[in-house]
Amino acid sequence: MRPKTPVVAWVSGVVVLLWAVGARPCVAQESHIGTLTGHAAAGKKVYRRYCVLCHGADGDGTGENAMWIDPKPRDFTLAVFKCRSTPSGTLPTDQDLFEAMSRGFLTTNMPPWLPLTRQNRADAVAYIKTFSPKWRTLKAGTPITIPPEPAAAIESILRGRGLFQKMECWKCHGPLGHGDGQSAKTLTDNKDNPIPPYNFSTGSRFKCGETNRDLYRIFMTGLDGTPMPSFGDDLKPGDAWDLVHFLRTLQPLDTPEAALWRAWLASHASDLKPIGPPGGGR
Amino acid sequence: MRRLIKGGGAQVSWLLSAMVTTVCLSAALALSGGRSRAYTAYSLAVHKTAAIPAFARKYGLACSACHTAWPELNAFGQRFRDNGYQLMNDRDSPIWLNPSYIPVTFRITPNWHRESATKQPVDAIPGTPGVVPTTVTQSGFDLSGMDLWTAGTLYKNISFVLLPSSDNTGAFHFEAAFVRFDNLWNSHWVNFKAGKFELDNLVSEKRFLFLSGNGGAYQAYHFGPVTDSLGFTNFGLGDNQIGAELSGHSENSYTRYGVAVLSNTDGAVGLPASQSYDTYLTFSHAIDAGALGVERLGAYAYIGRRPTYFQTSGGTPIPGTGLGSKSFYQVGVAGDFFFGDLEFLPLFLHANDNAYLATSTPGNVALPAGARDAKWNAAFLEAHYYVNPQLVFTGRYETVRMSQQADPALPSDLGNIDAYSGGVRWYPIMFSRAGLSWHTEVSAVRTRGSAFSPTDGVWTSSVFSGLDFDF
User: What is the pLDDT of residues B283-313, one digit of tens each?
Assistant: First the structure.
């Protein structure tokens, strides 16, 4: 028998060549959303119909309309995503991308793509993953664990308020959560584009969800590519829930937290120390 | 009664309008061999609406994001429309608009077309009375009508549309004008609008992909029995109507309903008819069929009344004082089914006109002997194949069948219609700021009954090729 070495060498060479010219292995051509499997080939059609004018044919966020859009469309070639269930610096799960696409992004040009079929959205997720080589070499991070939410209480809200001061959230989000902190105007994203901090007074939804669990996840994973860091290493779960309960009081909503806060304020407003820099807070 | 009392207002102008319109209508009916009103009453200009690059410019989306092929809406576009032209990403309010942005869109179609009709009553020697059945053919370069769209939001959850539209001579009318209050009580199930608007048809004639003289209208939407020679039942399901509508939808717009109360004028302004109202009900539900697409099935009912005579002054009818109102109705089911890139749009409807309307008999005189309600059924199946978002092939077959003539002495199939249309639309330019489509279409319609014999089959055909653009 002839030795197999030349065959192995040829196969290896072809594989290397294919890799070098951009051929992508099957693992990056699929997404898995529950029982759904998305396929990049089908996703390309979805992408070209709905996404290409903003995100660009190469997924680099330089579509025809990108120059008119603020904030700028996501650059998929970087594989950096704001809304994840995974720790900061890791790839999101397919489910994360699917949910982001379905939910849209508040105060951006990215609408909720809810009317598309689930299969269409799963296919689009698979296609989006073909734009960055990271999806071929790295696995998605492991979703963080979110413990059950304790009942809201005024003590929890007050502790959360203390954390808002201590962690210096007010520097960006402002003492009242209006997105007008002293650093607000200096913030930029990972592509040096200006980016405003979230204004809690504008409504019920956040960029990455609208529930208390979503809010917990946002500051425990951080929003990669933005100045919003992960507090996963700094906050214990109980502290994080305290912060959630306080942040809910900053929104113009009739939440249980807001009701507790209003009732407490009615008799204790003078007890509060202002939030903000020492001597200058509100 | 739009064609009979068009113009409203001063009686002199009303009378003049009525005379001119009646003459035109009679001539058209004669020329068409007693065919349905559809062909004679709807010109190319009427059927061009509802693709709005102004929205694409505002949101930075491609035409294909909201349209399967503009102007037809896809599921995403349907939700956008159902939310009052809002994407619901808190960027909908006008305060987010670039001050230099002007939410206006123009659409017009320079074209070449050829129209031909067989068995038309033509003088054997021009200028000398004595008609013989002859094929009449016209062809040449032409223009469509023009749409001048503006639409958007006045405030978050308050939307508007204003659509001055002209025919191809430049004579303008308001094709649509309404204000809509969206998501009342924070519920997408409660939306209200008032003004002149497109009926919430599952298969919309305002958004379809046909433009030719024959194919550019759904025969089923505009059919009337030939015995209604004066057009008493002036109603077209494809026409915009004036009134108020309560509508709602699920979050993804898969489930939708609409209830509308409408003036009984078929969209004509100036209160020309009477003081009764029409009602339009519609409901549809869609399912997520995975890779196949979104599959929708719906039903509708339109119930209306039309006056059959008017109060007069010195023998001249007074607009808006219609009396002797008689009823008509249409009920139908329709679907929008996707099989990947292949879309089918089936529709079936049943219609009934009261005997007075069906025979153009004033309600204060006796019906002709034996007269009865006119009934008919109509159906069509339309197919689209989307090669890609910029190339679509279209085809449609329509049929209208009388099931009961108002005059029992008439042949049972008089007025029956079979219509065939096919075409292709290629969009070489499909950006968020403008769109251009090269539209080519052929269409043929066979109608039973001519000016010479009720058993004749009259064929009319259209060939159309135009550059359909909006900006």
Answer: 999 999 999 999 999 999 999 999 999 999 9
DSSP-based three-state secondary structure for A45 = helix
Using DSSP's 3-state secondary structure scheme, residue A194 falls into strand
Strands (E) located in B326-373: 326-339, 342-353
Classify residue B268 as exposed, middle or buried by CB count within 10 Å of its CB (0-12, 13-18, 19+).
buried
* Whether complex ipTM tops 0.90: no
Query: What does the angle CA B381 – CA B383 – CA B386 come to, to the nearest 5 degrees?
Result: 170
Contact by Cβ (8 Å): B339, B292? yes
Between the CA atoms of A173, A178, A182 and A188, what dihedral angle is there, to the nearest 10 degrees? 60
Residue B462: name the closest of B178, B78, B199, B138 by CA: B138
DSSP state letter for B201: -
Nearest to A109 among B59, B79, B431 (CB): B59
CB neighbourhood size of B388 (10 A):
13
pLDDT tens digits, residue range B427-450? Answer: 998 877 788 999 999 999 999 999
* B368 DSSP assignment: P
User: Do residues B94 and B155 make contact, with C-beta atoms less than 8 angstroms apart?
Assistant: yes
Q: Can you tell me the distance from the alpha carbon of A77 to that of A65, in angstroms, rounded to the nearest whole number? A: 18
Q: Which domains does chain A have, with CATH numbers?
A: 29-137 (1.10.760.10), 154-271 (1.10.760.10)
Phi-psi region of A276 (alpha: psi -120 to 50; beta: other; left: phi over 0): left
The single residue listed with the structure tokens 């995403």 is B76
Residue of chain B whose Cα is closest to the Cα of A123: B291
Task: Give the bridge partners for B470, in sequence order.
Answer: B107, B435
Strand partners, B451: none
Question: Cα(A93)–Cα(A85) distance, rounded to whole angstroms?
Answer: 7
* Integer angstrom CA distances of residue A230 from A90, A116, A240, B8, B351: 12, 32, 11, 69, 65
pTM: 0.84
Residues of A in contact with B389 (CB under 8 A): 48-49
| DSSP code at position B243 | E
Q: Which residues contact B427 (CB under 8 A, 6 or more apart)?
A: B63, B69, B70, B389, B390, B391, B435, B436, B437
pLDDT tier, A14 (very low <50, low <70, confident <90, very high otherwise): low
Strand, helix or coil at B447?
Answer: strand
Nearest to B458 by CA among B26, B31, B23: B31
Q: Express each pLDDT in A28-77 by its tens digit.
A: 589 999 999 999 999 999 999 999 999 999 999 999 888 888 889 999 99
Give the distance from residue B57's alpha carbon to the nearest chain A alpha carbon, in angstroms: 9
Q: What angle do CA B443, B445, B6 make, to 5 degrees?
A: 100
Identify the residue whose tokens are 């009318």: B173
Angstrom distance (rounded) from CA A240 to CA A243: 5
CB contact under 8 A, A115 and B253: yes
Question: Nearest residue of B to residue A207 by CA position?
Answer: B89
| Cβ atoms of residues B336 and B202 within 8 Å | yes
Three-state DSSP at B330 gives: strand
Helices and strands (H and E) in chain B: how many: 8, 22
